[in-house]
Specification:
- The protein is of the alpha/beta class.
- It folds into 3 domains: about 1-80, Type 1 dockerin domain (Orthogonal Bundle); about 105-255, Rossmann fold; about 270-385, Beta Barrel (Cyclophilin), CATH 2.40.100.20.
- Helices cover about 25% and strands about 20% of the residues.
- It has helices spanning about 1-15, 40-50, 60, 70-80, 115-130, 155-160, 195-200, 250-255, 290-300, 365-375; strands spanning about 105-110, 130-135, 180-185, 210-215, 235, 240-245, 270-275, 280, 280-285, 300-310, 315, 325-330, 335-340, 345, 350-360, 380-385.
- Strands 7, 8, 9, 10, 11, 12, 13, 14, 15 and 16 form a 10-stranded antiparallel beta sheet that branches. Strands 1, 2, 3, 4, 5 and 6 form a 6-stranded parallel beta sheet that branches.
- Strand 13 and strand 14 (about 345) form a beta hairpin.
- The structure holds flavin mononucleotide.
Length: about 400
């Protein structure tokens, strides 16, 4: 990566006419070994010399037959291409064009100091059903720090090419994402330098990067383009500026425009219960005990033979322990709890004891619960599958 950046500096030098050295990184295509934008017999000669060690070898633009090594065959191919006997040279991995990654997982990364960019990033994440990561500065920006045109911290950082404010906390693991949306406010026409820190710290090779920003009035301008050299191996999409207060609908329209679609929601199995074969509607607690029971029931249905106790409950052994967070509880008819970590209790009356709540039966009144549970032993089954 570092090497590529160094080369890029050379390229910029070339671009302003200060460089007369052949710069291989500037070669846009296989065959253009001297990087002058054309494929000529001179390139073939360079490839031949590189093949025998007389020039620096650069596979990206010299390995014309894409076999991973340099030989006279490459020089011959380049020469044939130069004189029109070949119509194309292969483009391969390792060539100058970064290849987009195929995963469709999207991550939204944003920085927002005064809260205008934040909701837009959140809309995008919500619409795309994706993960979101907020870049926060290790030394937070105070109000004084962002009072612009007062030589405040933000003013100084934006005018200092070397400024790279430290990011608070660990960076997101971007390895599983194919696309990263990058949200930021415009600060003096550019992205805040914390974005630069992020781009230089994360490995964004092959990822598609989509910048978006908010501003008082400035367009996205050069702010997005100036981010490109910081992640040169990414595939950059055009940046987009949004006004402060942009609504969710507009973000949805933009996402459609740039062809970003909602990633499929991960479907979690839902826990279902029957009593004596009758499906019972239950509102389950969102806790570790229910998560653990759901996991268990997803592997194979759990059948529990219960017995009535005390005239107010049915109780039966689960055959395994579940995570518990027992608390003194007064139950009501319809409550389902975990007793002693390994027994399930369904109430048709009330009791007070230390339990972990599991859920509550809905849609059955006291009379119906009595009829269902108050007449001897019952069979509970707990199963879990993804609801269609
Ligand atoms: C240091 C600084 C520089 C700014 N420079 C510009 C600018 O050049 N052009 C502009 O239109 N707005 C500028 N603004 C305004 C912000 O871009 C705008 O308020 C943005 O929506 C803030 O986003 P945030 O609330 O997510 O931090 C600047 C704000 C700050 C703090």
């Amino acid at each position: 990566m570092k090497q590529i950046r160094t080369i890029l500096v050379f390229c910029l030098v070339c671009a302003v006419g200060l460089c007369c050295l052949p710069c291989f990184a500037c070669a846009p295509a296989v065959g253009d070994a001297d990087g002058d934008g054309r494929v000529t017999a001179g390139d073939a000669r360079l490839v031949l010399r590189a093949g025998v060690g007389l020039e620096e070898a650069d596979l990206a633009c010299m390995d014309a037959d894409a076999d991973g090594k340099l030989s006279a065959a490459d020089a011959r191919l380049v020469l044939r291409y130069a004189v029109g006997l070949e119509t194309a040279l292969p483009v391969k991995s390792g060539s100058a064009e970064p290849e987009p990654q195929t995963t469709d997982k999207i991550l939204v990364v944003y920085f927002s100091r005064t809260g205008h960019t934040k909701p837009l990033a959140e809309y995008a994440a919500e619409l795309l059903n994706t993960d979101i990561y907020e870049l926060r500065a290790k030394i937070p920006y105070t109000d004084e720090d962002i009072r612009y045109y007062t030589d405040c911290r933000a003013d100084r950082e934006q005018h200092d090419p070397a400024a790279r404010p430290e990011i608070e906390g660990p960076l997101p693991d971007v390895s599983g994402y194919g696309t990263v949306l990058l949200g930021y406010p415009i600060w003096h026409g550019q992205a805040p330098k914390i974005l630069y820190t992020f781009l230089e710290s994360a490995d964004l090779t092959g990822k598609t990067l989509v910048p978006f920003c908010t501003s008082a009035s400035s367009p996205v301008g050069s702010s997005a383009d100036n981010l490109h050299p910081l992640a040169p191996d990414a595939v950059w999409k055009e940046g987009k500026r949004f006004a402060v207060g942009t609504e969710k609908d507009e973000i949805a329209g933009w996402l459609t425009e740039i062809d970003l679609k909602q990633t499929k929601k991960k479907e979690e199995p839902a826990l279902q219960m029957t009593i004596n074969g009758t499906a019972i509607s239950v509102v389950w607690e969102d806790n570790e005990a229910v998560a653990s029971l759901t996991k268990l029931a997803a592997k194979a249905p759990v059948t529990v033979q219960t017995t009535p106790y005390g005239g107010f409950e049915q109780v039966g052994a689960l055959g395994t322990g579940l995570p518990r967070n027992d608390a003194q509880t007064t139950t009501a008819a319809g409550d389902i709890v975990l007793y002693n970590g390994n027994q399930i209790v369904v109430f048709y009356g009330s009791n007070t004891w230390r339990y972990t709540r599991l859920g509550k039966i809905e849609g059955l009144d006291g009379g119906a619960l009595n009829a269902l549970l108050g007449n001897g032993a019952v069979t509970l089954t707990l199963s879990a599958s993804v609801r269609s």
